[in-house]
Amino acid sequence: MKRAAKRELKYEAIYKAALKVFAEYGFKKATIEDIAAELDTAKSSLYFYVKDKRELYDKAVAYGLRIWQNKVREAVAAERDVQEQVIIMAHKAYEYLAEDRHLQRILMRDPSLFPLFSSQDPYSDINRDSIAMLKDILQRGITDGRFRPIDIDGVAQLLFAFYVMLIQKTYMFPEGTLSRIMFKDGVDLILGGLIAEPARKKGRAPTKAKPAKD
Amino acid sequence: MKRAAKRELKYEAIYKAALKVFAEYGFKKATIEDIAAELDTAKSSLYFYVKDKRELYDKAVAYGLRIWQNKVREAVAAERDVQEQVIIMAHKAYEYLAEDRHLQRILMRDPSLFPLFSSQDPYSDINRDSIAMLKDILQRGITDGRFRPIDIDGVAQLLFAFYVMLIQKTYMFPEGTLSRIMFKDGVDLILGGLIAEPARKKGRAPTKAKPAKD
DNA sequence: AAGTCGAATTTATGATCATTTTGTTCTATT
DNA sequence: AATAGAACAAAATGATCATAAATTCGACTT
Fold first, then answer.
1. Strand partners, B195
2. N or C: which end of chain B has fewer CB within 10 A?
3. Strand D closer than 7 Å to the CB of A54?
């Protein structure tokens, strides 16, 4: 194996260990020694790879977020129909955190990592890519006449903000199952607002009225 | 003037003074003495009306929120058409804070007063009324066949959460004018998803694509 | 030379306590 | 019922110090 590839693996191992320990104790309580122990190495060795504790945290989280993003990208790439792509993208992105417990726990501990406001987003570069992905889909849907001719930039921002809100509601500040219903209703409503007239009937059936407690 | 009415006025004066001082200094830095000075009275006198500093803060904020809500209620009541009511409600609620600088500043200082998550909402009783107002409109729209038969509870929760998010984006964590565009796009998109087929053409024209920076 | 380690050093953190500010209560007064 | 001044109690603030953790360094290994 090549030097560079080996190095990559080492970094991945470090980030994974860091994610695990930070998930368990949070940034403050987790020590470099905890992470070194997880890797069966001396704490000073970690400083060969990262500048300091903060950088280790930042890079590890970025690594986790990229994996999340790539899963969504793959799922979307496997689908042809734009309308379905919107649905797949929404669902895959939304459901992923249920699988990645470490990342979920880290976000729960530190919601500022995935904030509603891009101006305070430490990973705006990553999320910009996600918004670009969404814009591509919207653009294609409009070009193909499947979606109404909306303001792509504005709507993409809006939908992303909406999505972040639901991620927060579901995983970061969970309060019952209401948010899952809201996600469903939200996808329906927005898809309904997105789709151009002729294709309307293809949309999901609206949810039947159910009593919902707050 | 009656006893009770006079007392009401006194409370209003106290709450207004409190809102002003808390807006200027925040809960921590504002002192009871500051508020007493604003009212030209001794700080000990305030304890005749409220239990302690915290209660004064809570009650004053509740007073401010109720005024906001009533302005919206009045505006909605003045309109007949359900579709217009949705638009009026959204706009009035959204624009109000631009006028009430004190309340805006207090919310900015302390975003937990108007949170995205109802489980941590200190004023859930007030906001429950707002959601009920919205539900009434949706219900009527559906009954009249103007709106699609959606899940009223879920959608009302959703729209309220969506609205709170935009209030936060615009007034509590402002970052340029993007959020106003998002509000416009959001109202359009959701109205589009809400309206039943035949009435579709009455909806607002979609925003034309404009380049938007983040 | 890239990578690891143990010991040494610097930096952050938490506990304690004296001091001062501020919140709250009490009592007299109108 | 309502207000105010003085007295009191509680909480915030800031200084000091002990401890634990972060970071650096030079020697050692592969």
1. B147
2. N
3. yes
B123 contact partners, CB below 8 Å, separation of at least 6: B61, B62, B65, B113, B114
User: Inter-chain contact A154–B119, Cβ cutoff 8 Å?
Assistant: no
Contacts of A20 (CB under 8 A, 6+ apart): A38, A102
Q: Please name the residues in contact with A206: beta carbons below 8 A apart, sequence gap of 6 or more.
A: A188, A192, B148, B149, B150, B151
Two structure tokens written together for A160: 């992303």
Give chain B's count of helices (H) and strands (E): 9, 0
The gap between A61 CA and D24 C1' (Å) is 26
Given B116, B158, B206, which is nearest A149 (Cβ)? Answer: B206
Q: Which residues pair with A195 in a beta bridge?
A: A147
What pLDDT does A6 receive? Answer: 85
Distance from the Cα of B97 to chain A's closest Cα (Å) equals 19
The H or E element that residue B42 is part of is none
B116: phi then psi, degrees, rounded to nearest 5: -75, -20
- Where do we find the tokens 């053409």? B201
> Residue B155: its chain A contacts at CB < 8 A?
185, 189
> Which chain A positions have a beta carbon within 8 Å of B197's beta carbon?
200
Beta bridge partners of B147: B195
Cα–Cα distance, B73 to A154 (Å, whole number): 29
Terminal-residue alpha carbon distance, chain A = 56
Against a cut of 0.85, is the pTM above it?
yes
